[in-house]
Amino acid sequence: MRNLMIAAIAATGLTGPATAQGLADEAEITNGLLVVGMAYEISRQCDDIDARTFQGIRTLLNLKSRARDLGYSSDEVDAYIDDDAQKDRLEAIARRQLVQLGAVTGDPASYCAVGQDQIAKGSGVGRLLR
User: Fold this and answer.
1) Staple partner for 67: which of 18, 57, 72, 97, CB 3.0–4.6 Å?
2) CB atoms within 10 A of CB 63
3) What is the pLDDT of residue 81?
């Protein structure tokens, strides 16, 4: 999951040296990152479901734009995304949410079921899957 977040974020040109502790408190940004990470994890675990990569990248670009609208500089956004502690925190939250939805570590079929359910519901995660 971390690798997709890193790759997708790198593809959007997000890199930088500043810090942005406040972004961790922005629910809209955090939730968006979680949605992308959860969709990627489902596609990684379930061979029958693919991530909509370009849609995921567009979501990340929109999140960066939204953070800028909220008053964060590009350097602050980049620093938040590059922060290993934040990556670990988001990954743990995403995995907990997948478990709550029925995913079981080591059971690809459970990830497929969660993915199909999210697609059927048209959720944020589901819209990033096919």
Assistant:
1) 72
2) 25
3) 81
Helices 27-45 and 53-69: angle between axes, nearest 10 degrees: 170
Containing structural domain, residue 34:
2-127
Q: Which residues, listed in sequence order, are joined to residue 87 by a DSSP beta bridge?
A: none
Residue 18: pLDDT band (50, 70, 90) is: very low
Number of domains in the chain: 1
Contact 12, 68 (CB under 8 A): no
Question: Is 80:24 a contact under the CB 8 Å cutoff?
Answer: yes
Phi and psi torsions of 49, nearest 5°: -125, 135
- Torsion-angle region of residue 81: left (phi > 0), alpha (psi -120 to 50) or beta? alpha
